[in-house]
Amino acid sequence: MAVNLLEPDLLLAVKGIRLASIAAGIKKSQENDLVLIQMSENSQCAAVFTQNLFCAAPVTIAREHLQLQAPRYLLINSGNANAGTGEQGLRDANKCCELLAKQAGCQAKEVLPFSTGVIGENLPVNNIENSMASLYQQLADDNWINAGRGIMTTDTKLKGISRQIKLQGKVVTVTGVAKGAGMIQPDMATMLSFIATDAAISKQLLQQCLIAAVNNSFNAITVDSDTSTNDACVLIATGQAGNEPITLNSENYQQLAQLINEVCLYLAQAIIRDAEGATKFVELQVNTARSVDDARQVAYTVAHSPLVKTALFASDPNWGRILAAVGRAGVDFDINKIQIYLNDICIVSKGGRDSAYTEEQGQKIMQQQEITIRIEMQTGEHSACIWTSDLSYDYVKINSEYRS
Amino acid sequence: MAVNLLEPDLLLAVKGIRLASIAAGIKKSQENDLVLIQMSENSQCAAVFTQNLFCAAPVTIAREHLQLQAPRYLLINSGNANAGTGEQGLRDANKCCELLAKQAGCQAKEVLPFSTGVIGENLPVNNIENSMASLYQQLADDNWINAGRGIMTTDTKLKGISRQIKLQGKVVTVTGVAKGAGMIQPDMATMLSFIATDAAISKQLLQQCLIAAVNNSFNAITVDSDTSTNDACVLIATGQAGNEPITLNSENYQQLAQLINEVCLYLAQAIIRDAEGATKFVELQVNTARSVDDARQVAYTVAHSPLVKTALFASDPNWGRILAAVGRAGVDFDINKIQIYLNDICIVSKGGRDSAYTEEQGQKIMQQQEITIRIEMQTGEHSACIWTSDLSYDYVKINSEYRS
């Protein structure tokens, strides 16, 4: 059901990164649900996490460990979010770190735990314990695709991408994977996504690079306005590409940052293309706004409107619903000046239907799988762009049958 | 499909009010779609309107007329919202007022126009013109039920109520009708609702009475977070009950205000019971909050969560979704102190599942048609209560087929 999303045939290995994936019996489906990512010594690791106050136990532990020590391992399970699990959840997440530390001969605080899946059920730590040895043995550098599959929940497609550039004559690789597919409105953080590069760069610059990339990618998508308890995005730099360490304001930094941006944007859009029940991929551009905040508020109000989303599902150019959503966004504008476009067709101007607009034009655009809704506020010079999906029968089906 | 909503067998006449309803051919279904409400001379009329910036043409005209003159007529059509129709929409709304004025021998500014239905299509003024004479001839005091039916769009049930009290030995009647059923999150206003009493009261007090009642009724419901372009609630007092005019702070004022509150609350809840596709009627109580705004923000965040709404539809006690919605509401609290209840069963305490909670308890409550979700923030002394519905296949069906 995903919208124009192809699974990658190949994801490139990143020097210094080894991965493993196994079925530990956490998912009822018996698919892979436990993933290990090992990074070489002296790797730098940057991360952003959910802003949901009810953050999951592994998020709490991962944040703590990241303050204490440079991590060597990411341990990720799917099928259980270990969220809303109180003290027991924290004990369980810590226990998993300890089990891996024992297996790998490292310290527990060198492990960052991640979980995704059902909220409110205790993590089956025994399953994880029983699978730890064989998981560890499977570590290999060409395992990105298996790792990407192992973190999936309601996702229908693997989401991953590799890109390369040359820095100082050295080939630098960036490979990343991500999972969606519901409870998606990342807020200053993202869904689960793991990205690695072999570029040499300081931790501080890497974090800066990640935050900039996430703001315009994972933080600019919404399926259903629900920010997950488990969102996390991790960016690793192993430093094994052989380039001179990248410094701030160097041309190399700009090049790498641009590459990270592209990878994050691809993965974020892939999450929307594979959103629960999605039949449309919709870009919301809000331009000529008084501020970026205003532009984002209008964009999210339209993107979250169930009436706009069901009209998109129905391929119905019911533009009155877009107009109504813009009008209630809580942002001031002049209804006689604002303009609303479907792709390049002006549908609303001078407070009503544009005089040149015809229903046939709107119908033709709405039948496409990829649609841009552009809103010109005419109140300033700021813009925002976000991406969303439609609201279909399948969204209701997937989310009413999720635990059954 | 409505949840525990019975249609009234009888709505009591209100002295000084006459009503008419007719099929003018605006709705494709050939059902009644044009309603006239006549009020006797010296009636007082209070009204609140949508805060949507893209308010409909009739809202603009009704607001203007209300400033100029005490109204004598409300002219309401369903099947076409006359919203997003620019200058033509304003001309059409004015034309309707003029047509009625000519028929009734009054001034156009003594008519308040209202519309509800599809946004963005021009009002078929010819249909209204052709029906005006016979509409006017049908005015009668026992026509409340017909009027209530004439304003319906996707509503499946007529929504109306009558209540009586004695003031100074005089029987005072309040009768009101309302329509939903989608694009519902009234904001400082409401959906279309028309309420009349024969009590004698000043316009200023009547408006105060209406605003207070609306705040805790029509402004405390949500189906889909979409504030309509056409929301309006009108409260008429004809002053023909024979009571002494009610003054501020009198016991009579409290009694009448209480009655208006009850009527508004019944009608607002009736809109939720008959919300598009609704199978559940859900009350969200947020208590011990730092402020009413905080409490409302938490309540609305939970009420708008598509994941909470689909879990309600599925009768699935997936309380993790409630917890996740509370956590992203943007309101500060201590996750170890907050408590979440389903009816009287505590489901979340100390940051996770309450130790006494069992899935069976949750399942039993979720299977009911009426459910209360109560959240104790433990950060202060303020409360808010709102009402909402679930998100079902039928919501998607109704809204993807609306214009077809």
SSE order of chain A, one letter for each helix or strand: EEEHEHEHHEEEHEEHEHHHEEEHEEH
Given as residue ranges, the uncertain stretches of chain A (5+ residues, pLDDT < 50) are none
The percent range for strand residues of chain A is: 15-25%
CATH superfamily of the largest domain in chain A: L-amino peptidase D-ALA esterase/amidase
According to CATH, what is the class of the largest domain in chain A?
A: Alpha Beta
Give the % helix of chain A.
25-40%
Distance between the termini of chain A: 21 Å
Which key terms come to mind for this protein?
homodimer; 404 residues; alpha+beta; L-amino peptidase D-ALA esterase/amidase; Ubiquitin-like (UB roll); 2 domains; seven-stranded mixed sheet; five-stranded mixed sheet; 16 strands; 33% helix; globular
Summed up:
With 404 residues, chain A is α+β, with helices and mostly antiparallel strands. Chain A is built from eleven helices and 16 strands.
